Amino acid sequence: MGYPRKLTRRFQAFDNFAISFTIINIIAGIFSSFGFGMNAGGPRILVFGWIGVSVMVLFVGASMGEIASAYPTSGALYFSAGKLAKRHHGAWSWYTGWLNFVGQVGGTAATDYAAATFIQAFIAMQWPSYQVTPQRTVAITAAILLVQALANTYTVHLVAILNRISVWWLLIGMVIIVTALTVVPIHHQPTSYVAHFANNTGFTNGLYGGMLGLLVTSWTFTGFDGSFHMSEETVRATINTPKGIIRAIGCSAFTGLILMLALVYAIRDYAHEASAAAPPVQILIDALGLGTAKLLLLIVIGAMLFCGLANMTSNTRQIFAFSRDGAMPGSHWWHSVSTRTRTPVKAVWLAAVCSLLLVVPGWWSNTAFTAVVSVNVVGLFLAYGIPIFLRLRLDTFQPGPWHLGRYGKPVAAIAVVWIVISNILFMLPQASPITATSFNYAPIAVAVVLLIATAWWFANARRRFQGPVSYGSPDEVAAMDLI
Q1: What fold characterizes domain 13-477?
Q2: What is the pTM of this model?
Q3: Subcellular location, in the record's words (predicted)?
């Protein structure tokens, strides 16, 4: 790929799969967005929407996997965009990189903020006198970011071990939650309940309300580019990276559907639970009792913490690679690798600080925080879509060992169409009446990011950034190998 090797290859095939499976994180994704789905479509959209969106995401993952096999680098999306563009390589790479960066920072911030929220919910359940405040949520989020940054600083091997643990935490945790919801309650909803439709969004058009409900699955299935970003640290990356992406999406789709069905059929008082502060937690309390609900909530919190850790790992590799090509302020700082830990330590702490900055507005306003982190999903999926779109336009694409053959272009076309549709949904109003509190700030957040990136590009970057840098011929680069 034209780079001297700085990072050690310690990720096995399972480790590569584990990081994307952990970032997708069915428990964290479903529990953090289930309430929105109860009000935007109900069980019909939660279940059948999960199936439909999972299939669409598999198309995105397959197309990304084909690109990852051809360009297995930490730069991942922005690197491949620069290589696949017919012209204006630097501009395509620039915008993809910044969308990916902002989306990943937002993902880490959103996940850890959600974990802090659920931690406070658990504390309030355990000690009713505890007062939940926005300031405490931000403080807990900052503590979580600190611990995750320390873990990412230590060694790649430690992160790999934690990601392996996280896979079993998710799978065993899912089995425990599903078993409890299946065995313990004496009452379950009838089989036909899966077709129940509810539209409490405030919009009179049921189709629109149901379409918004698809965001539950779309929000869950983000971050599977983590396998791509870890490719420089993965053995046999041209094969194991695309397989890691596909396996993570497939396993998440199957296990997530089981968890979704368990929650849906455990619903008792739909109106009461849908209007609760944390609907899935209320479902656990109503179906299992307070004591069991608290124990299961610990599984959910653990899943969210593992998700935030994996998010940060992926984020730091993107920062490392983007800086290696001189695309970030102070690039010489962020692409340096510690001689002791063999990790991009400075990139780790930059990722942690940027995530904390996104969380800080939550000290005063939940709306402000939501406005900033909304760019997470839009930024990531736009970054996913650009290299897939460029691969679709390219007739001379040279695939790697893992490829889709003659199905490559049709799969890419379907992936691009779905990315456009899902991004439109994420930017549309999601509740009515539209007020300062309910307004969807995602379009404004994305516009601000693109405006800053564009101004910076024309002011300075277009003269010094031409896309991914080549350090020389394969022989010359081999002579530079630092390990």
Answers
A1: Amino acid/polyamine transporter I (1.20.1740)
A2: 0.89
A3: Membrane
